[in-house]
Design a protein that fits this description.
By secondary structure, this protein is mainly alpha-helical. 38% of the residues lie in helices and 7% in strands. The longest helix is centred in the middle third of the chain and has 15 residues.
Length: 204
């Protein structure tokens, strides 16, 4: 019976390509993304001096990879960047590179991407390329699935022009129009006949 080797290897001569299967969906999507097309509109958003920043194409590739893999949050995305070899290859991180902090996404989005409209520009350019390649159809589909609502029938109301609220039932109208009067409750009287407890006013 074989056993695990307790001595871990210090160095490994292996490429990240070997961890990504040949039929992985990210392999088909990655050649369609042009890194230079992302870097060109980002040049004016970065200062020429200071510490080296994270490449903007890697930030956007990480977000795209998170959407493709249905990763729900940016913190989970950073964790997947650390351990998911296919996503690491898609973004362009080497094996010896650590994933950045989750706040990197929010800080870059707030300081650079939101005010410049960079994400909108890249999205519009992507849609235009898809339309030129014949991948966008003008067909519109609507989902007519019936979903049971978690709402009370008596509390449902509808709106009509000029946006006046009207109840759907007489019970709803009576319920909203009539308010029950509050009751005044007190504690039991003492032996001397005086009420020693504080009065409490509660609504029904």
């Amino acid at each position: 019976m074989g056993g695990a080797n307790p001595q871990r290897a210090l160095f490994s001569d292996i490429s990240l390509e070997t961890f990504v299967p040949a039929d992985h969906p990210l392999r088909r999507i990655r050649p369609l993304i042009d890194d230079h097309a992302i870097r060109r509109p980002c040049r004016d958003l970065y200062a020429p001096i200071g510490r080296p920043s994270i490449p903007p194409e890697q930030l956007l590739l990480a977000l795209v990879g998170g959407y493709l893999l249905s990763i729900p949050s940016e913190r989970r995305l950073v964790m997947e960047l650390q351990c998911n070899m296919a996503l690491r290859w898609f973004v362009g991180l080497n094996l010896d590179q650590d994933a950045w902090d989750a706040s990197t996404f929010s800080q870059n989005r707030r300081r650079r991407f939101d005010e410049s409209g960079l994400l909108e520009q890249l999205f519009d350019a992507t849609v235009k390329q898809a339309m030129a390649a014949g991948l966008v159809s003008r067909h519109v589909s609507a989902d007519g699935t019936l979903v049971r609502a978690n709402a009370a029938t008596r509390a449902s109301c509808r709106w009509r022009w000029p946006w006046t609220r009207r109840s759907t039932s007489a019970a709803c109208g009576r319920r909203t129009a009539r308010r029950r009067a509050p009751r005044i409750l007190g504690t039991a009287p003492s032996t001397s006949g005086e009420n020693t407890g504080a009065m409490r006013r509660i609504g029904r």
